[in-house]
Amino acid sequence: xxxxxxxxxxxxxxxxxxxxxxxxxxxxxxxxxxxxxxxxxxxxxxxxxxxxxxxxxxxxxxxxxxxxxxxxxxxxxxxxxxxxxxxxxxxxxxxxxxxxxxxxxxxxxxxxxxxxxxxxxxxxxxxxxxxxxxxxxxxxxxxxxxxxxxxxxxxxxxxxxxxxxxxxxxxxxxxxxxxxxxxxxxxxxxxxxxxxxxxxxxxxxxxxxxxxxxxxxxxxxxxxxxxxxxxxxxxxxxxxxxxxxxxxxxxxxxxxxxxxxxxxxxxxxxxxxxxxxxxxxxxxxxxxxxxxxxxxxxxxxxxxxxxxxxxxxxxxxxxxxxxxxxxxxxxxxxxxxxxxxxxxxxxxxxxxxxxxxxxxxxxxxxxxxxxxxxxxxxxxxxxxxxxxxxxxxxxxxxxxxxxxxxxxxxxxx
Length: 413
What we know:
Layout: H1 3-9, E1 12-16, E2 25-30, E3 37-42, E4 49-55, E5 68-70, E6 76-85, E7 91-99, E8 109-112, E9 128-131, E10 138-142, E11 145-149, E12 158-159, E13 169-171, H2 176-182, E14 189-191, E15 197-204, E16 210-215, E17 225-230, E18 242-249, E19 254-259, E20 268-275, E21 280-287, E22 292-299, E23 306-308, E24 310-316, E25 333-335, E26 340-347, E27 350-357, E28 364-366, E29 374-381, E30 386-391, E31 406-411
Parallel strand pairs: 19-23
Antiparallel strand pairs: 1-2, 2-3, 3-4, 5-6, 6-7, 7-8, 9-10, 10-11, 11-12, 13-15, 14-15, 15-18, 16-17, 18-19, 20-21, 21-22, 22-24, 25-26, 26-27, 27-28, 29-30, 30-31
């Protein structure tokens, strides 16, 4: 197996474990040889590294570790088992929380994650699970409803939605069209910084015509099945999926439905949802033809039962279509200190990094030079005011080689 193929199969996660006394970044990864979860700690200059075992597979009750996600304070692991594929990005699985020992010699603490009852006796298959920004706060989707728990080892999960048992309604996870072609993700809920609010999408496909899709299923099945998938085909005037964006406030236990700006057409796709801070949500829309794009900011700081999003950027893409809806590795990036959003947009025949001011209207400043065709923004160093991004342009020449990708750094101020 080549080194590049091994790298693509690595399971790892970068964290900043401030609550464990660390002063630098930590790389948590699964050791392919031993099956243990390891921790690599780097000093501030990144010239030395210390590696330690975070969790041995023999300590874990399942005896093996597959997919995992560590909490942001590095004290709890979320480990997936028995996943069953649904579509390209979606699956259902069982999940266990593992509280790591705080001192040598202590045993780990495990707890199955489920919506209610005795989770160890009746484990539940969950559709999507996310950590919050602090401690062991966790949110998940079960049976088309969203739950959260601020203290999952001590308190039962809280149900925040009450969805009808209707196959045309999807809550907190994407329907097929959004998963495959719009958001390119299974998850359709987002926990705010500080774990104060949860934004989520509700998809209503009751008026959308169904496409009969061949379904091959298990390799042991000799005959394929036919599954109906709500799909508004290109050129059809049949209705689109009706999408509503809602925000649940944990303190008040109230749900707010966000209204789109008047300039956004009635027939549209929601293409981007990101928290800017704990009270402001960034939302992107495109029209049905996907040649007009809109970005808005929604203020959740008021006590109103509804909130209207204000547009701060709109764009018409001539001779093409808007593609800021593709959420890649980390695009777009937020800089709350300067109230700017960094995103990749088309300009001068290239994809360039644009800085958008949230307080203005179409206030765009181009950060990267036109000769760089930017594939994705990876990181914004707010202290140094520098952006790290990927481009197929080399460091010293103007040759664009699409078969190669280079990491670049550029000033963002």
